[in-house]
Every structure is written in C-alpha cells, then in structure tokens.
Write a structure and sequence with these properties.
The chain has about 190 residues and is an alpha/beta fold. The chain is built from five helices and nine strands; from the N terminus they run E-E-E-H-H-E-E-E-H-E-H-E-E-H. The strands form two sheets. Strands 4-3-7-9-8 form a five-stranded mixed β-sheet.
Length: about 190
C-alpha cells in the first residue's frame, strides 16, 4: 500500500480467477478490506450476498456455498463451481483509494483500471461480461465505449485483440450483491 497525500492507495490483493474454457467474466469493483474477508477469494465478505445468490439460482439453496459453521464461504466449493460453469472473476479496478473507511463503491476512487482486454485475451471463448453494481458497470462500459446497461439487462458490444477479428460480447449489469443495496436476496437472484 502506498500513501498519496493522506489517503493510501490499495493494490488489488487477488490474481484474476480464469479457469480454462471460461465463457463468462464477472467483474465487481474492488474487494473490501482484508479484515472483512471470510475466505481468500472474490466476494469474500460474509455479509455480501453474491454466493447466496448463486446458491439460490443454481441450487435453490442460499446456504449452498457456506461451510457447516455458517460463518464463512466455502472457497473450494465456489472455485469448483466456477471452473465447472466456465466463470472467471476479477474486478474493474486494480488500484483504488477508499475515500471513507468502508467498501462502498460510492466512496471508492479508482486510481488504476484493470486491463479488461488482457483478461479477455486469456478467455478466447468469452461471450459475456457480467458486472455487479453501478461502478463496475460504468467502468466496463467506459472501457468498451458503449452505453451502461440498466440492472438486469445487457448492452451488445464487441472486443478485438491484436490477433483476430472483433468478437461480439454482451455486457450485463446485475444489481450489487452488497447488503447495502436495497433489494431482497430473492429479487437480486431473480434479476
């Protein structure tokens, strides 16, 4: 962590998770502070509903990805699931400043954006990017130069690397999985 004035700059603490054959890239904004983590992986805060949403959508069980003590998420179960389903994970920021001492996107200043093109270059079969929340959707849409989709919808865009023709891509915007977002878990799962 570096200091810039009074507000420290944080570097992303995780490497991108890109299983072989991944077809979907989920992009959030940036992880919470490490003291809020229940596991060493994406969406680690036990108060965040991401893995409960996935449990409801795929297994009709909000607790599917929690360990038996009910106090943390099961990283092995989650990574196995993402690998099987072809889901890659990272965030839209590689460096940030927290303007307040919390994980709220509203108070995150992006210092350096993630290289979305480099992520996609590692995923030749990627057909969709799914953003979780407004800041991630706005950041990804700015990268592609396309409109920001409304929650639960997508924008058609494309991506081209140096090796071949442009590939069509859908940029989806899902609601934030944060409990601070005023929508029930069931409604988030429906969206």
């Amino acid at each position: 962590m570096e200091r810039c004035g009074e507000i420290p700059v944080e570097r992303h603490p995780l490497e991108p998770f890109i299983p072989e054959g991944a077809r979907i890239l989920i992009l959030g904004s940036f992880p919470p502070k490490r003291e809020r983590w229940s596991m060493d992986f994406f969406y680690p805060n036990f108060n965040n509903d991401m893995w409960r949403i996935f449990g409801l959508v795929f297994y009709d069980d909000r607790s599917f990805f929690t360990v038996s003590d009910g106090k943390r998420f099961d990283k092995v179960k989650i990574t196995d699931f993402c690998t099987e389903k072809g889901i890659a994970l990272y965030d839209t920021a590689s460096e940030i400043r927290r303007l307040q001492d919390n994980a709220s996107d509203k108070f995150l200043e992006i210092v350096s954006h993630a290289d979305i093109g480099a992520l996609l270059a590692r995923m030749p079969g990627c057909k969709a990017i799914v953003t979780t929340g407004q800041k991630a959707a706005e950041t990804a849409a700015a990268y592609f130069g396309c409109p920001v989709p409304s929650p639960g919808t997508f924008t058609e865009t494309s991506w081209k690397d140096d090796k071949g023709p442009s590939s069509p891509l859908r940029l989806w915007r899902m609601p934030s999985s944060s409990r601070a977002y005023p929508l029930s878990l069931e409604k988030k799962a429906e969206t």
